[in-house]
Design a protein that fits this description.
The protein has 18 helices and twelve strands. Strands 1-2-6-5-4-3-7-8-9 form a nine-stranded mixed beta sheet, sandwiched between helices. A three-stranded antiparallel beta sheet has the order 10-12-11. The longest helix is centred in the N-terminal third of the chain and has 13 residues. The radius of gyration is 23 Å and the shape is elongated.
Length: 361
């Protein structure tokens, strides 16, 4: 059987409750293939020692879906299914003990996504929390959960920096939760991916969110908790990170703020106190890797950016001078300079004067 034929059974088994990656691998070994397992008789399945409740659930799913139809639905939504054994399955996620048997991806995963940080926090973010989150690491993939508050701020900060970001869903990828983040989800698809272990049509349930959090931390080198109350779901992600041997970072907050009680306690318990993104990069020994990405970003500057760089290469230049010298509109120059500054290509030295970051060009 070809890999593509076997894939439809990976996808179909994602709908079967109680059969996770480890159990599925064991059953696959007994029957030789997922196709044989899917079509096995009840009596043959009982001989494997499979719990009758799980077996009944499997039979119900098998009678209600068609594997070929499952694949056709994925194609309609431009979703790729990555079985655990696929070389495209994220290597960081393979390291955790309870990684999903199959991962659904809408968008594109890239090699640089292995250099990633999960950013999580309260849905009731304060202005302080949103401001801190806007300092998200440049050229490091940001992983978060699309929830209101800190998650939303983290995704938006990554997009504003023209960086990559991944959003982990607690439902099927044909749904967006919360619904007010539909546009944000579309924006993420342009420079990242939407990811879920849940098949199409799966609605967001309360129990899905803690389960989803293990993937947030599993896909990342470390977890940054920006703001979290004493019972925040972000603390669950931090617990998963510790179990998965990931680093935990926390932003300190006011002892008077209810939204900082969880983060301050994490610091008391040994989480790395974070003042800026450099603290994280140094702790994870990622500074040089990120520097290389910044060099690539500078070398791959757009034609407009190249014109601006040439204009200011000899020293500080005022934005009005750049407009006159290049013939570009103020709006075009301002927007490009903002992106270039976020990417570390230029520096704003005050009073709308800019200079090139000589270490990158």
């Amino acid at each position: 059987m070809s890999a593509s034929d076997e894939l439809k059974y990976w996808v179909s088994f994602a709908r079967v409750p109680g059969i996770g990656r480890v159990r599925l691998a064991r059953l696959k070994e007994k029957f030789g293939s997922l196709s044989n397992l899917w079509n096995a008789s009840r009596s043959d399945l009982l001989q494997t020692g499979l719990d009758e409740k799980i077996l009944d659930g499997f039979i119900r799913v098998r009678e209600s879906i068609a594997p070929d139809s499952e694949m056709e639905a994925l194609e309609r939504y431009h979703i790729k299914a990555l079985p655990y054994l696929s070389p495209e399955y994220p290597s960081l996620l393979k390291e955790i003990t309870d990684s999903p048997a199959v991962l659904f991806v809408r968008g594109e995963l890239k090699p640089q996504d292995e250099i990633s940080i999960a950013v999580v926090g309260t849905r009731r973010a304060t202005s302080y929390g949103r401001q801190v989150t806007s300092l998200a690491m440049n050229r490091v993939t940001i992983v978060s959960g699309l929830a209101k508050g800190i998650d939303t701020a983290a995704h938006k900060a990554a997009l504003a920096a023209q960086g990559r970001t991944l959003s982990i869903f607690a439902c099927g990828l044909d749904l967006v939760y919360p619904p007010e983040n539909v546009k944000l989800a579309r924006d993420i698809l342009e420079s990242g991916a939407l990811i879920s272990e849940y098949p199409l049509g799966t609605k967001p349930k309360a129990e899905h969110f803690p389960q989803r959090n293990r993937i947030l931390s599993g896909l990342s080198r470390g977890v940054l908790v920006v703001e979290a109350g004493e019972t925040s779901g972000a603390l669950i992600t931090a617990d998963f990170a510790l179990q998965q041997d990931r680093e935990v970072f926390a932003v300190p907050g006011s002892i008077l703020s209810a939204m900082s009680k969880g983060t301050n306690r994490l610091i008391q318990q040994g989480a790395k106190l974070v003042r800026n993104h450099i603290d994280i990069l140094e702790e994870l020994n990622l500074s040089e890797v990120v520097h290389q990405y910044q060099l690539q970003a500078a070398n791959a500057a757009s034609e407009t950016e190249s014109v601006i760089i040439k204009c200011i290469s000899d020293g500080p230049v005022h934005i009005d001078q750049i407009c006159r010298a290049t013939g570009l509109t103020v709006t075009t120059v301002q927007s490009n300079l903002a992106v270039m500054e976020l990417n570390g290509i230029v520096k704003h030295i005050g009073n709308l004067n800019y200079t090139v970051n000589k270490s990158l060009v």
